[in-house]
Amino acid sequence: MRKGQSDLSLVEEVGRRGNMRESCHLKKGPWTSAEDAILVDYVKKHGEGNWNAVQKHSGLSRCGKSCRLRWANHLRPDLKKGMFTPEEERRIVELHAKLGNKWARMAAELPGRTDNEIKNFWNTRIKRLQRAGLPIYPPDVCLQVNLSQEESHNVASMPNQDSFGSNLVQSDAFEIPHVEFENLELNQQFLSYSPELLNIPPKTIGLSHGYGHVFPMACPPKHLQESVSNYMSLPNQMTDFACKENFDEPYKSSSPYDSDFSTNDQSSFGIPPGSDALLNSNFSPSEPLSGPMNLELPSYQYSDNQQDSWVNSSVPLPLVESVDTLIQSPPMKRAKSECFALQNSGLLEAVLYESKKLNSSKDDTRQQSSNLMLDDVADFHLKDCELEFEAHCDPNSPSALSAASVLSEHTPVSGSSLDDESQFVESILGGNGQNETPNQMAISGLDDFLGRGQFGHDNGCVNDKPIVTDVIAALLGEDTCCGY
DNA sequence: AAGAACCTCAACCGCGAGTTC
DNA sequence: CGAACTCGCGGTTGAGGTTCT
């Protein structure tokens, strides 16, 4: 059993260099209790660390890496076993909102839990929420993240996102205010919702979703329909705390189920504005929409639907979500485009809202207030935009990478998806599109929106107008820009 | 009852950062 | 100063179990 020292020290590098013949004598796969006992015994005697020496001294035919992992994830005495408590689940959500996929950092905040555990938790149960079109980040978490980042922003200018993230972790600013946890009247609603959702039998979720709300799949399996209808009531439970109690004034004024798009900021999508989560491709608010055709996704190709339930559209908006996605896509002008994208969750719905408004334009008072709120939302996001700007300059970032894949995924290939989207747009814009295709109407709505100076701030984002429209045109598969 | 589909989670892999020589 | 080594992290895989059809 005992391996030569030279072999031992080479194991990792050998593996790294692809010479598997050298490492094949090291055992892989599940650990046996005997191996566990050996490792535990070794660590008790020698302490943690120097993992490559474990094999040498203990006779384990496992590489140091494997030993470290086994110890860290299963044998450590301080490990907490069993399911996550609701409090832990909420903590994970909050930490993810702040940190993104920084599992190790999250694990450091959750005593007894491992990064692997948290990662698995996120990748499975949270993904389930997304599939269901339910939010991952409750609005209070979004707000909390934003506030803490704004505080940090006020304390020190952030040269780039990385340092910003580090500061968050290393400084007190990262500490999640206790008040948020103590605000259980508020959070309990989430908690009462969250664990249930997290334990939803996966196959009972037959929801697809749109941009604005959860809606049943076009043809949900019959056995799903009952659970769907039961499930549909859940978001309503969140309505009250979502905006009425825990949001600042602009957000208070409407519940997520008001028909006013103007409340749709990132928080409304369950995406904390400016959070690191936004930098992760798997949590871009603009990831490929899921739908009946896309319920099962490869690992990390999340549907990112979580925003939906915080949004209050009365119609599904998959097209807009696709557009939203695409706005991140253009490689050129990427920083600003993504800056745009980071805030665009609100913007694009606002665009549709504007389009819708053009068709109705009956309630001037409401328009004024919504325009006001749109500006608020825009300002709100533009702040985040500034914060995120530098971070998104890295072309290798996941969000950058996601764009191309998203583009390819959502560029209509077969007629069906395009048809669906067209019908969808038509449904949004009403029956007034006799002379324009729905796509054109959507573009014109966007044009109108941009032209009204909703984003005419001196931030450069307005320069993205051509990009946005081009991208939309590309998405729609029509050369709408020609007549533009 | 059997196969398909799906879910969970332990473990592996590649990479990068830090440290040592 | 640079190569070698070690460690830790995040992404991914696949085996095994469960549920559905």
Automatic annotation (TrEMBL):
GO terms for cellular component: nucleus. The keyword Transcription regulation applies. Gene3D superfamilies: Homeodomain-like (1.10.10.60). Residues 254-269 have a biased composition (Polar residues). Residues 23-75, 76-126 form the Myb-like domain. InterPro entries: Homeodomain-like_sf (IPR009057), Myb_dom (IPR017930), SANT/Myb (IPR001005). Residues 26-75, 76-130 form the HTH myb-type domain. The keyword Nucleus applies. It is found in: Nucleus. Keywords: Activator, DNA-binding, Nucleus, Repeat, Transcription, Transcription regulation. Residues 254-285 are annotated as: Disordered. One of its GO terms (molecular function) is DNA binding. This is Transcription factor GAMYB-like. It comes from Gossypium australe. The lineage of its organism: Eukaryota, Viridiplantae, Streptophyta, Embryophyta, Tracheophyta.
